[in-house]
Design a protein that fits this description.
Structural class: alpha+beta
Shape: elongated
Order of helices and strands: HHHHHHHEHHHEEHHEEH
Largest sheet: 5 strands, antiparallel
Number of helices: 13
Oligomer: single chain
Radius of gyration: 32 Å
Distance between the termini: 120 Å
Helix content: 55-70%
């Protein structure tokens, strides 16, 4: 009896082992089938990473090539912009302004020094003061604050690299550009054709959102052709130059209209406010020599 019981127990253990082995084999086959299915429908992760790297390298080469051909100042600015997307976004502006780059480019430090204290600078300060006085008369207890300093290229680069709207727009552009150069029809092996293809793509691209700052070197503040007004009450900023507060601090509170009324009543040298992107504080300044042309 004891021998029979031992035999039965041994058989049961063997059956459990066999069943376990068959279950494991079954699961392994299912797993293999799943892996094969994934392999058929999607490239390996390392392949996708390699494709992304190739697209990024291609874009960087083309950005540098196009920038060098446009203008040494463009090449310098691009080399000081962080990230492929931001460089592409700036290059788009440079290409669209290529026939006016010399006319629009921000002043050098030597030019800024020559401007400060010049008759043109004094004229600007006079026009600003006219607007400030008109605004104060119409809005007792409030005043306008203006920074009448030329915005240097270094400051423009710093702003471009930190601006949230630029970051968001650059991300969308980088994705679209990577998809372009990754298509089989893109002439990556022909530098001239590849350069022209990217230039055409960039000039036709519409970034979303619209960046709230100009590409470095192209800001009208770089030649003191733009003025940003702020509304103050004592030491408190009532309406500042922050895009997120336009709806509440400027439009809803009525300061957009009040500033515009003061500008129009006091001076013919200011044009605005800036419509795209909407900046109720931003007015273009036209010196007398420019306005007379």
């Amino acid at each position: 009896m004891l021998a029979l019981a031992a035999a039965i127990a041994a058989n049961e253990r063997g059956a459990r082992v066999l069943n376990t082995r068959w279950s494991s084999l079954y699961l392994e086959r299912l797993l293999l089938a799943g892996l094969l299915a994934v392999g058929v429908n999607a490239p390996p992760a390392h392949a996708a990473d390699s494709q992304a790297t190739d697209a990024g390298d291609t874009l960087e080469r083309l950005i540098a090539d196009i920038g060098d051909r446009l203008d040494p100042r463009v090449a310098y600015s691009l080399s000081h912009i962080g990230g492929t997307g931001r460089r592409l976004l700036a290059l788009r502006s440079y290409l669209r302004s290529s026939d006016r780059l010399a006319e629009r480019w921000s002043w050098s430090q030597e030019q800024i020094s020559a401007y400060e204290g010049s008759p043109e600078h004094r004229d600007l300060l006079t026009e600003i003061e006219k607007v400030r006085e008109a605004f104060a008369r119409s809005n007792p207890g409030y005043e306008l604050w203006i920074n009448p300093q030329v915005r240097s290229l270094d400051r423009q680069l710093e702003s471009w690299n930190a601006n949230e709207s630029v970051t968001e727009a650059a991300a969308g552009l980088a994705t679209a550009a990577a998809a372009l150069v990754g298509t089989p029809s893109f002439p990556a092996k022909d530098p001239a054709q590849a350069r022209r293809a990217l230039e055409t793509f960039l000039q036709g691209f519409r970034p979303t959102p619209t960046p709230t700052v100009a590409a470095p070197g192209l800001s009208p503040h770089g030649q003191m052709r733009a003025v940003d007004f702020q509304v103050h009450q004592g030491d408190r900023i009532v309406a500042g130059t922050t895009t997120a507060t336009i709806a509440t601090e400027w439009d809803a509170a009525g300061w957009s209209e009040k500033l515009d009324s003061a500008v129009r009543a006091a001076s013919r040298r200011f044009v605005g406010p800036l419509a795209s992107p909407h900046e109720p504080w931003h007015y273009t300044y036209s010196p007398e020599a420019v306005a007379a042309q």
